[in-house]
Amino acid sequence: MPAHFDLLIRNGTAILPWGEATAAIGVRHGRIATLQAGASDTAEQMIDASHLHVLPGLIDPHVHLRDPGNAAVESIPTGTKAAVLGGLTAVFDMPNTSPAITDPASLAWKQAYVPGHSYCDFGIYIGATKTNAGELGQMETADGVCAIKLFAGSTTGDLLVEHDAGIERVMRAGRRRIAFHSEDEYRLQDRRPMFSTGMPYATHMEWRDAECAALGTRRILSLAHKTGRPAHIVHVSTAEEFAYLAAHKDIATCEVLLNHLTQIGPECYERLGGYAVMNPPIRDRRHYDAAWAAVADGTVDNIGSDHAPHSRAAKEKPWPETAAGLTGVQTLVPIMLDHVNAGRLSLSRMADLMSAAPARIFGAVNKGRIATGYDADFTLVDMKRRRTIENDWIVTPAGWTPFAGMQVTGWPQATIIRGNIVMQDDTILTPPIGNIIRFR
After folding, report:
1. What is the rounded average pLDDT of the residues 274-278?
2. Which CATH homologous superfamily contains domain 4-54+375-428?
3. Catalytic member of 67, 93, 184, 306
């Protein structure tokens, strides 16, 4: 007797944990029910994925959706709409909002706000401060919390724990992996008087130099070994860090950003001005090459966008008053597909870095792979479609992308979340159905 499903995806090339295969994927009650649906099986909804690749739902584990904050720049509804238009099924949102997510009350607000406002599934970071270590152990296991985030170097917002004693105190509060912005604050402040307002935007990578990042990462990993607390170093940007991290995989995982795999200084500063300024900075070709080598040899665990929008006025101020941070959640998948087509990595490796890895690193339950019993999250992509990224496609209210005018090959055609077709052919098809993710 034929089986009946809520959704059937036929004829696509699925990126499975064990390799590529043509699969007939049947979905029931938001979960994958089979990868071998019969020819006579039926469904409420059918997708013919001929000529498409079916990826496990892609995740951006590093976004700043500015909510609570300034909705004229970004919000959870607009940022997650951008995510699903760009082929993402989940995002993990950083805590340096206004006010920041650093206590049970602010966390409770976000937990309640996400359902009904987010278009994709959602993880929540909580921010470490100099005074909240006593609460972090309990907060890190609350519903929807993916990790603690600790800023050891100053960036957007007022969260900063720069001294070893404070970092160690946070590391001893709880057990789960902590995500670190690991630039060294002391070196940043010591070097600041060397530079003056109005210097070229490329000065940003001179001030926040490679040693600033490498010193910060070495300090964090020393404390990780001392306390036994696993660390996740976000936005690794230097050859020195990649080499060091490769020798410390017993205690640390790491992320590289799309920008550090795509843009190269100083050319990007000459072309984009303040729209190339981010923390840590986009660096020169030596570090770009090291980032791709670290992807190739497995040192890099995951890829994120560090989507951090600002208004045009804030980005166009003279250096160093220009706001640091770039948009990226909507362009992450198309540009990574272009890198696949350019031969820099395989599609299976991309799926590992952008789906299985964030689920594995942070313990996202039922996410990260196409397998029976897992959430029916899929990113369907056309690897041959060519398209130019333009500002008018960007739905983030800030209204710009540093990749405007870039032609890419490979494009997300559909975003499916727990069996719901949320986006297809550049069209949002559902209201906000996102939910907070459960983490181990």
Report:
1. 98
2. Urease, subunit C, domain 1 (2.30.40.10)
3. 306
